[in-house]
Amino acid sequence: MPVPIKHALVASFVAALFAGAAMAADPLVDGFRNPPDSARPRTWWHWVNGNISEAGIDADLAWLKSVGIGGVQNFDVNLGMPTLVKKRIAYMTPEWKQAFSHAVDVATKYGLEFAIASSPGWSESGGPWVAPADAMKKLVWSETLIAGGRRFTGRLPAPPATTGSFQDLPHDEPFAMGAASKPAASYYQDSAVIAFPVQTLPLQEIPAARSAGGEVLDAQALADDRLTTEAVLPRHAGQIPTVLLTYAKPVTLRTARLFMPGAVPPFGSPVWRPVLEARTATGWSRVADLPLATVPTTASFAPVRSREFRVRFEPLPAAPDLIGAGAPGAIVVQMFPQAAPDAPLRLAMLQLSAEARVSGFEQKAGFAVALDYDALDSQGPPDEAGVPRSKVIDLTGRMKAGTLDWTAPPGRWRVLRLGWSLTGTTNHPANPEATGLEVDKYDGAAVRRYLETYLRGYQDAVGGERIGRHGISALLTDSTEVGASNWTARLPERFRALRGYDLHPWLPALAGFIVESRARSDAFLDDFRRTLAQLHAREHYGTIATVAHEHGLTVYGEALESLRPTLGDDLEMRAHADIPMAALWTWPRDGAPRTTLLGDMKGASSVAHVRGRSAVAAESMTSAFSPWAFAPSDLRRVVDLEFACGINRPVIHTSVHQPLDDKVPGLTLAIFGQYFNRHETWAGMARPWIDYIARSSFLLQQGHDVADVAWFIGEERPLTALFAHEAPHDLPQRHAWDAVDADMLMHELRVENGILVTPGGARYAALYLGGSSRTMT
After folding, report:
1. What SS3 class is residue 756?
2. What is the distance between the terminal CA atoms of the chain, rounded to a whole angstrom?
3. What integer is the mean pLDDT of 526-550?
4. Rounded-to-integer distance, Cα 523 and Cα 517, Å
């Protein structure tokens, strides 16, 4: 029977490939036949809750070497697992250091690359040695109204020193995952005092508040600025939850502010759409949608006059799971009970105001993170006059020990006392003895202090000569999960250096007050976020790379991974990594991979192509709620998609350390996989699967990537946010492309003979303005 020609060609190639004696030496053939260590996949190696043994270390590393793994990336984590060994080995105790040193010795004997995470836990760069002054910060303020035309001498109320995400909102860390709770550190420092004229006097009346069912609500708790007081809105079957607000006489309103604690899971979506309505002569009229976030939100609208208003909480479909991989809804509800569609509604703020404010200023100023800031800018009236910049007066030098001495010009004046306190974010999920504050991501000096202290612990464990080429040879920054922060002690001078103008006249906009005009305030807030994003990339990721390189360490660098968990350009965040890294999770056979992870992989490979990195890694084949559900036949489609997106060094997530042989199929990383360990039923047959990954990786590491189009992502949204719900519609379909950002345009791309080229060797025939590039600096 004739052999089909394609099969004949494959058979001929394979026969020639393995007929080594009959062929001249060919590096590609040799590398394919026996892939070098640089092409072999790595694996994450989690030590969980102090369940560690040297016998288990020996057996783990021997098995990983035998199946063809090229290196391990070590994490010390806590996910609530009980102690199963005879004695728990706590992080950085003498016993832990001895076990870790032994692990490095064994890995070195086997020629395995040994990497450590950038902090205990996996996100991101924090620990108990981070001083409060070096930790992540937020802006806070207090307000005082004074009459001008006479001298004012009085104490200004201190801004909230509360540790948390916004003003006096207490810290909540939903992803601590089993670490022993610790009191949140408290710290406060003044930054500035400014004053500006009041354009519209605040309403003095607090409206009466009741539910649609007639229950009286705590109107004071709704109207005050305190976020620790709440009103509970009862639920009634078959009724949309509604708050009715009634004034003694008609009032004119321009702004509403709302906060529902716990209504928005981190990285999730709300289950309610609050709608503000006003009673008119013909019935209820829709005024504005009131968005929900993890902090209060402000909505501005055209002036509306009425005596009665109401907020209806229209139900939305259940929020998607937190990790996008089939997590049961019950898990989400257990972690965030306010997200349950049948839970009573907790309202910490429902303010109506006659004053115009910046729509969504809480997110625009970086207290929380929005997916699309262009959409926020479009809310409210198209433009509105605010306080002239020339009328904003800096009184910082006039306050002594909290007391202001100032004679204001005639009129009513608002005085803001501004300072900073801590967000309280800690590294997670780390063991209690290894848990502490996350370092300020905008302060390179603080990041250096953090990392040098962290590395000294490992130097003490293994000896300084075994950090670098021999022993510990790499450092990994996992995807960031630290959330929002929006201040650092030297931010005013950093802002002037990067943006070219003074921050102080615009400070009212960070508290929601319109300066110059609504459009100008939005433009300033765009500059403010851009500054934070650049500092995040340079001061945090840049400093980590610098310090790591000083110690001879290779840097693996992930960034945002999914959506926009914090402010930052995911391409620029990975610019400092020697090996840019992404993530790809598994997905059901009847489903599809999350598009945001497709964007993440293209982001990592684009950074490598533009900046000349030969290796591109990915946290690979991560599963959730799927214990021991995958064999190589199930995973082939996952790793092949990584290869198609430019990844050439998969890092299997995860091979959890197995300290015992009588607990099979083995210890796990709670709900997370891949469950890839020596107790797996196919552990003895894993070598061909790992060799397949290594051979594919080797071939993909050769030469330069060829792409025709440099696809500019714009300046406002990272690539993962652009891929949040679907791939952008204007991506090239018949031409290969790489993503480029503003930093690449300014510093990497140049034109030679009509072709865009980069120092890294990439060449493009065209630059396409895609993503969020409709608005550009």
Report:
1. strand
2. 67
3. 98
4. 10
